[in-house]
Amino acid sequence: MKQPHIGLIGLGTMGANLARNIAHKGYSIAVYNRTTSVTESFLKNHGNSSITGPRTLEEFVESLKPPRIILLMVKAGKAVDIVIDQLRPLIEKGDSIIDCGNSYFKDTKRRYNELENYEIHFAGCGVSGGEEGALNGPSLMLGSNDNSWQQLKDVLQAIAAKDFNGKPCVTHVGPESAGHYVKMVHNGIEYGIMQLMAEGYDMLRTLYTLSSKDIAHIYKQYNDTELSSYLFDISEAVLLRKDDQSDTYIVDMILDEAAQKGTGAWTAHESLATGEATPTIAEAVFARYLTGNKEKRKMLAKHYASLKKQPKTISDDVVNTLRDALYSSILLTYIQGFSLIHNASQEYAWNIDLPEIARIWQGGCIIRADMLSLLHSALREEKQLLATPSVQKALLPRIRGLRHIITQGVGAGIPLPAFSSTLAYIDTLTSSQLPANYIQGLRDRFGAHTYKRIDKKGVFHTDWLTS
Ligand SMILES: NC(=O)c1ccc[n+]([C@@H]2O[C@H](COP(=O)([O-])OP(=O)(O)OC[C@H]3O[C@@H](n4cnc5c(N)ncnc54)[C@H](OP(=O)(O)O)[C@@H]3O)[C@@H](O)[C@H]2O)c1
C-alpha cells in the first residue's frame, strides 16, 4: 500500500462512510477515531488494503505523507477545536486540515486565521447528503485558499455526486468560511422546504382527512412532475412504512415534536443580522420550536377547539392547487437562500459563483431537486432571480394556488406559517407601495427618527407637536 497523504478523523455516521467512499475511489487513507473500539470495528467491517487505522493520534499523523491532508468529521463545536489543538503540535507547515462537519462559519473563519499563523492550511468543507451521500457521493462545498483547493480537487471530484450533466457536485466556493456559509444556507433552505412539505401534509391529513397511504400516493404523483426532488422521493418510504409495534403506519406513531441541530437557526440569525430577509427559513425554525411541548399543546387544544373548522372533501382540483402552492413556495425558499448567499458574497468579498452553487446542489445533497436546473440557468442571466423571465414564468401561474391553499387552510385553523410567510414575501417584494410611510411617520413622531420624502432628496423631520 502507498503511504497515504489523506487521513480522516472521526468515524461516526458521516466519517466512516466518507472514508469508505475515498478508499473505493482508489485513494489510500488512514483513519483515526477518539474511541479506539470504533476504529477496530470499522476496520473489521470495512477494512481493505487502502485503509489503515492507527490507534494513536501520533501514529496517525506519522503514517501520513507530507503535505498531509487531514479531514475532520467530528461533532461540530468544541470537539473541532479540541482535535485541532491536539493535531497542531504534530503536523507541519504546508499540511492541511479540512473540517467537513457542520461548523458555524464564524468558527471556521477564526480557525482559518489561527492556523494561518502556523502556516497550516485550514479549510471548511460543507458535506451534504447524509450517510448515503457520504458513501455514494455527497455534494461538497469547499471554502479554502487556492493551495488547499489544488491539493484536494482530485479527491473531492472523485468522491462527489454528479450534477444533471454528469459533472462532479463540488466547487471551490470561495476563501475561508465561504463553504461552511453556503452549507449553512443549504440547511436553512432544507428547513424551509421540509416545513412547507409538512404543511402540505397537514392540509391533506387534517383538513382533507387523508391517510398516510393516500398522502404518500399524492406526494409520489408530485415527485413525477416539476416538483421532483430527493425529499419528495423519500417521502413515499417515510409515509408508507408500517410500524412493527402496532397495526398502523410508523409516521402516525412518531411524536410530533421536531428536533434541530442549529444550522436553520444560524441561517435565520444571519438573515436578521444582515437584513437580507429569509422569512420562510426563519418561520420554519420557529415552527420547529413551536412543535415542542406536546402536553401543553394538548391541554390548550381543548380550550381552543372552537377555532378549528370541519374537514372538507378532497378533489383533483385541491391536489393540483396544492402542487402549485408547494412548487411556488419551494422555489421562493431557494430564492431567499440565494439572496442571502449573494449578500454574504458581497459583504465578505467572497466572489461566490451563484450558478455554480445551483449546479453542485443538483446531486448528492438533501435539497437536490429538478427546479435547480431552472435556478441554475436563471442565475446565469441575473442574480436577482425574481427579475428573470424564467422564474416569473414558473411563479406567476402558481401563486394563485399558494394563495388559495393558505385561504383554505388558515380559514380552517391549520397552522401554515411557512406557506403564509412565503406568500407575504412575494406579495411584499412585488408591491410598489407598502405601508412603510406610515411606520416612518410614527417613528418620526415619537422619536424624531426622520424620514425621506417621495418628491425631494434629503432627510426630513416634522415638528408633530405644533399644528
Ligand atoms: N449525520 C448527517 O446526516 C450529517 C450530514 C452532514 C454533515 N454532518 C456533520 O458531520 C459531522 C459528523 O456528524 P456525524 O453524524 O457523523 O456524527 P456522529 O455519528 O455523532 O460522530 C461524531 C464523531 O465525532 C467524534 N468526536 C466527538 N467529540 C469528539 C472529541 N471531543 N474529540 C474527538 N472526536 C470527537 C466521535 O468520536 P467517538 O466515537 O470517540 O465519540 C465520532 O467519531 C457533524 O458536524 C455533523 O453536523 C452530519
Describe the structure.
The structure is a single chain. An 8-stranded mixed beta sheet has the order 3-2-1-4-5-6-7-8, sandwiched between helices. It is built from 19 helices and 8 strands. Strand 2 (29-32), helix 2 (36-46) and strand 3 (51-52) form a beta-alpha-beta unit. The model has no long low-confidence stretch (mean pLDDT 97). The chain has 467 residues and is α/β, with parallel strands linked by helices. The termini are far apart. 55% of the residues lie in helices and 8% in strands. The chain folds into 3 domains: 6-176, 3-Layer(aba) Sandwich (Rossmann fold); 184-429, N-(1-d-carboxylethyl)-l-norvaline Dehydrogenase, domain 2 (Orthogonal Bundle); 434-467, Single alpha-helices involved in coiled-coils or other helix-helix interfaces (Up-down Bundle). The structure holds NADP nicotinamide-adenine-dinucleotide phosphate. NADP nicotinamide-adenine-dinucleotide phosphate (NAP) binds next to helix 1, helix 4, strand 6 and helix 6.
